[in-house]
Amino acid sequence: MKAGDLLADTIYGCFEEVTKRSPHQPALVCLGEKVTYSELLEMVLKFAASLYRLGVREDDRVILYLFNLPQALITYLALQRIHAIPIPVAPVYTSYDLEYLATDSGVETIVCMDTNLNYVVEVLPKTPLKRVIVTNIVDLVPWWKKLIVRSFNRVPKGKIPSDQNSFSFKELLKKGDPSSLPRFVGQGAEKTALMLYTGGTTGFPKGVPLSMGLFLSRVREWRRASEAVALPGKSISALAAPFYHIIGQMDAMAPLVVHGETLMLFPRVVLDALFDYIQQYRATNMFAVPAMYRMILEHDRVDYYDLSSLKFCGTGGDVLPVKIAERWFEKFKVPLYQAYGTTETCGVITASYARDGIAPSGSIGKLIPDNKIKVVDPLTLEPVPPGEAGELLVASAYAKNYYWNKPEETAECFISIEGEVWYRTRDIVRIDEKGWYYFMDRSVDMIKHKGYRIAAAEIEKVLQEHPTVLSSCVVGIPDEKVGERIKAFVVMKSDAKGASSYELMNWCRDRLAPYKVPHYIEFRDMLPKSKVGKMLRRELRMEERKKQEQV
Predict the structure, then answer these.
(1) Is 21 exposed, middle or buried (0-12, 13-18, 19+ CB in 10 A)?
(2) Which of 155, 176, 211 is the last residue of a domain?
(3) For the segment 30-76, what is each residue's pLDDT rounded down to a tens digit?
(4) Domain assignment of residue 460, yes or no
(5) Structural domain tally of the chain?
(6) Does 184 lie in the same domain as 75?
(7) Are residues 59 and 136 both part of a single domain?
(8) Which of 29-61 are b and which e, b meaning 16 or more Cβ less than 10 Å from the residue's Cβ?
(9) DSSP summary character for residue 265
(10) CB-based contacts of 11, cutoff 8 Å, min separation 6
């Protein structure tokens, strides 16, 4: 595909096309308000015009520091309209994370919540940021509803500064003139559609650019997985994953760009609100991490709600415990369809399709189209015999095959074999004779907590910045409820006095997103290392597993 291709080969073009087909269909439901496709398109074009007027241009990168709100979708699609590159990031990130992300990506524009604006203001002098666009959680709800919730002090809010570099999302939306926009022309499958950040083995998050061709291929396959039970054009999806995560990207954009269906948004997932929306709007689709399904099963009010409209419940981001899958099916008579993927491969490598019925116990699905794989010995990279476990390598059409500003990690994770570039997942899988994939083990450098993929090295780096810490090693401890909990092993400096695990945890809280803060800290005199000085995380993991087995 080349520049000037059909608009259907772009995210914005697909959205515009489904809007033409279903202008009055509800596109979004959030905070009790519905937004039709025609209304959403109008807001997207107005906001795109305002961004363009402010100077945002093609290939400019823009951070979305937002909760799962219509403002996030409007901004995302508006950036697609002007060929800029959205970078959704966790709205719970602190200034420590934000400074790194803004500097690494080189962004000049950020769209944020008024409640996390203080972090943006803190990093402004240290980053390339020039423009700050601020929104409030109720910016797009009717005035009377704002009056009610604010009178009961139910909406968190922050103060928006009045300077030439700060702008109100609501005002930009109101003043945008779509006629000022240049004509939209597709730029081909290789065009960068967005960039997401994922954990880095060196302690720094890595920017993953995703191409338009790869993204649209994945989104279409994501929706195809459920079409046998959730009919095209008729489904209603409950977005239970954060928009800054690749799962949230797939689950949010599939309804909006494939068949023109309804997407339910939640600023923060509160289970009772999720249940109420599923019951009220008769949601058919939901995708969530295994930990959330466990929380639903154990919620003491779940039986008060009618969740029978759910037809496709997908899960990924972590290994699904067999007992959870069995309990879910027994209670709701709907399977949990498991998928597997990585940010680098745009979210999905294998998937369980509803058309195939219930997958074998423990399976993560079958290989989706547009992926090629190798299962190899992780040390020699030689193929393993059929049916045996090995490291999964993936090659995908239109994959970018590099990390933003990370040549060393790029060389480590993207390797060339016989002239083709393959991504090293570092995950160990097995394939049976019928083509079903099974996840066996993951790299010890990554921790999966509540579906988040957390780099051990990032936490170690923060701990080692503490003035009393000599060295640290972080591992994931298996936990049925959340996948893994984070445990840090710390060696203190010989002259360190008075430092406690409580102090180190507070140190981490000030510098890391909440889900990255260690749950346990253990002090040691020394840590296990290889002959070349590399930390042996696997040994510490094995120690912890043996302790669990003895309990």
Answers:
(1) exposed
(2) 211
(3) 999 999 999 999 999 999 999 999 999 999 999 999 999 999 999 99
(4) yes
(5) 3
(6) yes
(7) yes
(8) bbbeeebbbebbbbbbbbbbbbbbeeebeeebb
(9) E
(10) 77, 80, 193, 212, 215, 216, 253, 257
Instruction: Verify that 88 and 147 share a domain, yes or no.
Output: yes
Q: Is residue 111 part of a domain?
A: yes
Q: Is residue 365 situated within a structural domain?
A: yes
CATH at residue 479: 3.30.300.30
Rg (CA), the chain: 23
Answer yes or no: do 178 and 104 share one domain: yes
Instruction: Name residue 337's amino acid.
Output: Y
Low-confidence ranges of the chain (pLDDT < 50): 1-6, 531-532
CA–CA separation, 401 and 378 (whole Å): 19
Q: Are residues 491 and 526 in the same domain?
A: yes
Query: How far from the centroid of its chain's Cα atoms is residue 184's Cα?
Result: 28
* Structural domain of 206: 7-211
Q: Indicate whether 522 and 437 sit together in one domain.
A: no
pTM for this predicted structure? 0.84
Phi/psi zone of residue 498: left (φ > 0), alpha (ψ -120 to 50 degrees), beta? left
Q: Please give the share of the chain, as a percent, with pLDDT higher than 70.
A: 93
Give Cα 373 to chain centroid, integer Å.
Answer: 23
- Domain assignment present for residue 364? The answer is yes
Report the DSSP beta bridge partners of residue 87: 63
Tokens at residue 381, please?
A: 């990279």
Long-range contacts (CB closer than 8 Å, 24 or more residues apart) made by 199-202: 199/446, 199/453, 199/454, 199/455, 199/458, 200/406, 200/409, 200/455, 200/457, 200/458, 201/409, 201/412, 201/445, 201/455, 201/457, 202/406, 202/408, 202/409, 202/457
Same domain, 403 and 491: no
Q: How many DSSP H helices and E strands does the chain contain?
A: 16, 26
- DSSP per residue over 463-517, as a string? HHTSTTEEEEEEEEEEETTTEEEEEEEEEE-TT--S--HHHHHHHHHTTS-GGGS
3-state secondary structure of 374: strand
